[in-house]
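Kindly draft a polypeptide, keeping tokens residue-aligned:

***
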Amino acid sequence: MTSENKNILIVSIFNDVFHFYERMINSLKELGYHPVFLTNKYSIILECKKKDIEFIPIKNMPSARKTDLPVFLEKPSGTLTEDEAITLYSRTYELIQQFHKTRGIELMFIWSGIRLIDATAKEFAITHDIRTVFFEIGNFPGKIFADPEGTNAQSLLAKNPNILLNFRSDKNQFEEWRKNYIAENSTVLSVPQSSNVASIDYFKNIKDLYGFRTSNLLKFEPVLTYTKLMNKLRRRYSSFNYDDFDIEADRFIFYPMQVSDDAQLLVHSKIDNIKALEIVADEAKKEGLQLFVKPHPAERNFSYIHSITRLKEKLSFKFVGGNTLAFIKKSEKVVTINSTVGLQSLILQKDFETLSRAYYSDFSQEHLAKYIQSYLLNIDFWATEKIELSEVSELISRARIDNK
């Protein structure tokens, strides 16, 4: 590495995210950055070794115990004990600190920012004034969300939606996009993530288990569990008994459920699906409307869905399946906690209500157009080709968005 290279620390704890970052390595180097991956996954370490990519392994070594933990997903999900969390946080922070002290970190890439390793890196970056870009799969196919402060409710966009007014939009092009989006999605029954949600890469999981047991790498969540395996089988062999309904004649409020263990619920919301159902059922009753409830197509926990069905008699709702846009169009109102369905309601210019923090809650149609046309970047997370220089340069520029 020459003195001209600037170190970019890339926090990577999932294989699909690693491959997303890997696609931009050549472009990063052309821009003068030296990528260094921080990970606790043995499968990722092996790929780094194979491709001659520098990495920092998060190993279980003695560290000064830091107990003032940031907000992180594994706490409400129950996948880490307090002692495990303190150990992982302390070691991760110390490793980043050692690297920054000896080599210097110019920039960080962090996925989402809500798991403990990510949240630790985020805290270090804030404390040491290191520019950072946070990523998430965009709400719409072929797009990536990139923000300098976080994702969802933790993003700069959530704090100040008016930053969108600094971005470009073209009204005619947006209306054409809106028209095409509605046409293309009026028959779709699932979301892109749902096809991947039940998949388990056993070979890579076995590698990770081997690494945790032989290389002293620190875990942040179970790799293979009975629950994961059973939910995979249920997803393959189970079906749901939906209620009869007449979408043309029935007057209803539409409530699309969110994934039960989604960070949007566990970290960014004070209410879950069950509490939301109670609120919306009461609203529907007062307004003399039916309540249509649609399960999320990417729900991993089928036992959870079946527990929701047991609330039908108490709350008097219909459990429905079908195209989400069709339900939005025909509903009297859409209620969501903070899911993408709220944005879809905006696209269809339909009345909607959010029950928790959602960065789009106060979007105007101008905000929406700028968000879709410019704030979301045209990079496909699931693609395999190299992410080009201009695209990576635009990603990096997100670390410097003017908060005005």
